[in-house]
């Protein structure tokens, strides 16, 4: 199996350690004298073998830390039976440090335990055998060469892992913030789409129907009446658009936000539908309801009247609001069938908007054709809870 390619920095460490060791050999500076009892091979040449092996291990300090540590441990033991080289010892401490820092977590824990036990054994065993205080220095040397680098590597690894965890948490927080922002933007776009549709569609539908009538009928009086209705709806639609722009610009302080419509405005809403040609009638006894429910009910009636203006056949349009079983029930019925006059196009967004408003309040909504004593009708029914209402603006 081919070993991984060493990092450039590791190459620099290996070359530096090797050159430093050769310099120490060249000037004859070893860690022990030639007549030391544990020196089995004296002279400069035996020192070069563990030095060269340790330099090769430095090349693998990050690419293969466990292999480097096992090979380096053999090399440091070989260095002990020579006159020794300080560069070999220093490179071994770096290999221990790198094995803990870059190796697997389980290996890092084992290295700490092993070096700790070796330090304790190197302290107690020589002292127990020789009974001399100087024997304790062996444990100090082993601790400095083995356990010290391992402990340092463990501390640095913990700090590195903590920094990486903090970075990941920051990235996750940023990702969640971006998701929240995107969700808020989507929600705001949906709200503004509903508001724009509800506030302007009624007037534009009336303009489309009456302008078609004015163009198709060769009657001056009918054309004048149609143009009057067109002008009124265009002026009111423009005012509604300005109010919507005012809401959008509210944060910059350019305009004051317009007050949300209330159920007190249903009479005017139905009266406007009559002016546009609907035979609309209102039967409302809602009582006092929360503001979100009030706004949702108003918009449902407004959109239902707009749909009746565009699609309903001739006949009576009934708007009913009543409190039943802890809910405000909104019912709008209109004749189901083809219109005698011109028809305004529809996109289907109105039903989607009404359904979304009701869902935000936890209510129920249904719309479709029904049979009634007066014939087939299109009925819109919504039940809006007036207790435990969702907080906030349902728009």
TrEMBL record:
GO terms for molecular function: ATP binding; phosphorelay sensor kinase activity; protein dimerization activity. Residues 295-385 form the Histidine kinase/HSP90-like ATPase domain. It is an enzyme of class 2 (transferase). Residues 188-251 form the Signal transduction histidine kinase subgroup 3 dimerisation and phosphoacceptor domain. Pfam families: HATPase_c (PF02518), HisKA_3 (PF07730). GO terms for cellular component: membrane. The chain crosses the membrane at residues 12-31, 111-130, 136-156. Keywords: ATP-binding, Kinase, Membrane, Nucleotide-binding, Phosphoprotein, Transferase, Transmembrane, Transmembrane helix, Two-component regulatory system. This is histidine kinase. It comes from Streptomyces sp. R11.
